[in-house]
Amino acid sequence: MSANVSKAIGVLVMSYGTPESLGGVEAYYTHIRRGHPPTAGQLEDLTSRYRAIVGGVFPLRENTNRQVAALQRTLDELAGEGKFVCYQGLKHAAPYIEDGVAAMAASGITEAVGIVLTPQYSVMSVGGYMKRAKDEAAKHGIALAAIEEYHLHPELIDALSKRVTEGLERLGSDEAMVLFSAHSLPEKILEMNDPYPEQLLATSRAVAQAAGVERWQFTWQSAGQTGQPWLGPDILETIERLSQEGVKAMLVSPVGFVSDHLEVLYDIDIEAAKFAAERGVKLARIRMLNDDPQYMRAMADSVLAAAPERAL
């Protein structure tokens, strides 16, 4: 254990996780299903989606690794080397959230900040990550400060608005509709006064205003098949309705996501694009943030704001 590391502030960077290979899809899906293995049909459906976007290569996990490394570099630049040490913790794949906390404890870290690669808060998403992180941190005597949202950080909004402007120029249509999207959640969050829908709308409004966009709508995507109602309308329903209203060009801006992964590369780039093309609609998508320097600064600023005073 390094003396320098033991005096640093730990930063637990959390995300949903993705399998490391096509061979790991079943174990990943089983974890999502809380230990219940998927049926053969369910497994084939998910595996085929991954196969469609990655072919023989599986780069999705590398996105998160690059984001964590980029955040580390940004914190080193802003606060000085050795002040913060980043660790990774995933919800449904190794290293799990508990593994990340345990790694901090093994390094002798006693103070940490938790942040999720999702700018908007929901008790069912960010709230769940933070509960697991805090429960595990308490076992190790680590004081963990939680960053619950950063959905209106100026650097985040600017990075997204630039991508919207770029995307509209690429589409080449003055009449294009911008569709801001995010992962749907079960409708029951509305009964809990969960801030997730309003925070997503706030992000969308801010990005549209910064990009000078007046023609935009918000829509949901990637709802789970759980037998309970999920937030809608779904992006396919929105494309259908808008196409019937005569809209011929749409730019999808998935402001609830920050990386290239299944919900973007398949649900938008393959499924929604095919659905739109069949209706004579030209559909494009903005570039994802991934390890964009502005996005990293938004996260780093949030970490600095939540960190103990001794780190500043």
| CA-atom Rg in angstroms | 20 Å
- Looking at the structure, the CATH topology of the largest domain is Rossmann fold
**Helix proportion range:** 40-55%
The geometry reads as: globular
CATH architecture of the largest domain: 3-Layer(aba) Sandwich
Major sheet details: 4 strands, parallel
> How many distinct helices?
12
Which secondary-structure class do the elements indicate? alpha/beta
Unreliable sequence segments = none
Q: Provide the residue-averaged pLDDT.
A: 95
Explained architecture:
By secondary structure, this protein is α/β, with parallel strands linked by helices. It has two domains: 3-150 and 292-311, 3-Layer(aba) Sandwich (Rossmann fold); 154-285, Rossmann fold. The protein is 46% helix and 15% strand. The protein has twelve helices and eight strands. The protein has helices at residues 3-7, 25-32, 40-54, 60-79, 97-106, 126-139, 154-171, 196-211, 235-244, 262-265, 267-277, 293-306; strands spanning 9-15, 84-90, 111-116, 143-146, 177-183, 216-221, 249-253, 282-285. Strands 2-1-3-4 form a four-stranded parallel β-sheet, with helices on both faces. Helix 6 links the parallel strand 3 and strand 4 (143-146). The longest helix has 20 residues, at 60-79. The protein is globular, with a radius of gyration of 20 Å.
